[in-house]
Design a protein that fits this description.
By secondary structure, the chain is an alpha/beta fold. It has helices spanning about 15-25, 45-50, 65-70, 80-85, 105-115, 135-145, 155-170, 230-235, 245-260, 265-275; strands at about 1-10, 30-35, 55-60, 80, 90-95, 100, 125-130, 150-155, 175-180, 190-195, 215-220, 240. It is about 40% helix and about 20% strand. Helix 1 (about 15-25) crosses helix 9 (about 245-260) and helix 5 (about 105-115) packs across helix 6. It binds 2'-monophosphoadenosine-5'-diphosphate (ATR).
Length: about 280
Amino acid sequence: MDQYVVIGNPIAHSKSPSIHAAFAEQTRQQLAYQRLMAPLESFVQTVETFRASGGKGANVTVPFKLEAYALANQPANQLTPRAAAAGAVNTLKFEVDHLIGDNTDGIGLVADIMNNAGVPLCGKRVLLLGAGGAARGAILPLLEQQPASLWIANRTLSKAQDLRAIAQQFSPSSVVEVATFEQLSGPFDVIINATSASLSDDVPPLPTGIMTSATLAYDMMYAATPTAFLRLAHEWGAVCRDGLGMLVEQAAEAFYLWRGVRPQTEPVLRTLRTELQAIKPV
Ligand code: ATR
């Protein structure tokens, strides 16, 4: 049976094995998918050992996405354009004589917004909050949908300017604007929180008026209860969505890269949602 893993440290919490098991069952693909804990100092060795044992591909999660990028960026290997733009790799596919590094996080976000939430991005005013790795991964897939404009707002303006430079390198004709949170003037059609503020139950200091009842407020994070950003967005009357669908969609895109078959994401997302809601907040 073909072997796949998700490599991270820590990794015990990963939902990827259950998502890929559901995809495999649904599409009748014969494969096994497991968690693989890599020691912090030996990611590449862990990949090579798994590959030598016959592994076909791997997902890569925290803290190894930059190391996976460096590995795929070696001359003998191959990096997809969206992984090059993201500067990070979350999916490895092992070919006979080389490996391919891809990044499916951004396309997963876009698929969840457009296909699952039913919100188009073409011609819309889109605001991305944050300028770290999560934001960078989203930029090219968002621009490919040809929004009217893409704003990047960050606490540290220079990092938003760096992201704009990367965006313009990969998508020269796109309109990308940068701002601090205070400088923002809305409303926006879609606002995506790619800051890590939600991890500390915090929210960027957003000015009022950036959301209306027609705005989709999207948090890349998910939890059993709404993040601070989604609580604020709810108070301001926006349509709210967390990142659980993005998790499922990025997995579906990796599955497609490996197997050439596109699984249905809706039933898997429904199951995960039910499981998440069953978690009682402490
Ligand atoms: P990730 O890989 O999750 O994107 P990261 O690369 O460390 O993590 O980036 C974290 C992002 O969240 C940054 O944009 C950071 O802002 P700065 O660049 O100014 O540091 C942002 N961030 C983190 N905590 C925040 C908070 N409490 N309020 C606003 N922005 C925050």
